[in-house]
Amino acid sequence: MRLKAPLGRGVKLLLRLAVSLALLVALLHAIGWSNVVHTLAGADPGWAALGLLLAVLANTACAWRWRALVRWLRHEVAWPWAWVAYQRGVALNAVLPGATVGGDVWRAWALQRTGLDWPRASASVLLDRISGLWGLALLGGGCAVGALLADGTALRLTLAPGGRGATAAAVGVAVLVLAWLPRALLRWGAARSGGRHPWWGWWTMLAQHEPLRHWRQQLLASVGAQAVTVAALWAAALAVGAPLAWWWLAPAAVPIFVAAALPVGLGGWGTREAASAAVLAWLGVPAAQAVGMSLLFGAYALLQAPLGLLPLPRPPSGA
């Protein structure tokens, strides 16, 4: 039995690696290997370096958001510990199968070792991922409203004449509802569970521990972190010669980032590139530039991986 678990993990790793390679090979073959290589070879080093710095800044904002979530759960960890722990999780996500799963499990385990019980430790990581997705949807939706009102044809939208205003209004209402939804869910969940089930005690705790203040923190941190992440993607786009405006890229980044987080393949490779080619075609970006931009953006995570080798600061003795 001892041999089966490592063997199973090895097979799963190979399968996910095969999925990523198959997607990349098929995509590069369809586009033309030489086109993508030429695009990457001509990448502007200044824009590429700026994208890397923005990616590090975005992960720093995400680390702050995660620490704020831990505080919302009435547990304290020092900022240096949270930053290094988050960077280590990013490094594991970049090299382990399952996109964002491996590093997240490690973060929950490390947080538990600081004295937080397992339900709250795992909930903090899960909520951190949901908060990131929430911020991405709010940012993309908000930018889409502005884009629709400014120039509906720029997104190649097939709307009836005069329909842009109605569509923008509908998206705007959806964004406002989504922004307020977490507070409503907390109140509903606390009333439904009443703290009866031990594992769901963290939900009641969130609803009772200054929910308005922490909700604002998560709103600002999540939207801000995603805005910087989109800026890193935008810098990668400019590096490969794709003249995309940041506010047009924000709505397009939603399916791209979601595809990269799917638990298939390795580190988001393949799924992210396929989504980039499909989505950015709507913005008139050639496939070679879209895939080149995505590959460069994916390289940012690999280049940040050495930060995960930093020693993890010793957590405070009392939590």
UniProtKB/TrEMBL annotation:
Protein name: Lysylphosphatidylglycerol synthase TM region
Record has Protein biosynthesis as a keyword: no
Record carries keyword Membrane: yes
Protein topology in the membrane: Multi-pass membrane protein
PANTHER family (UniProt xref): BLL5419 PROTEIN
Signal sequence segment: none
InterPro entries according to UniProt: L-PG_synthase/AglD (IPR022791)
One Gene Ontology CC term in the entry: plasma membrane
Primary location group: membrane
Assigned keywords, A-Z: Cell membrane, Membrane, Transmembrane, Transmembrane helix
Localization per Swiss-Prot or TrEMBL: Cell membrane
Domain of life: Bacteria
Transmembrane regions: 46-66, 130-150, 165-186, 219-240, 246-267, 279-303
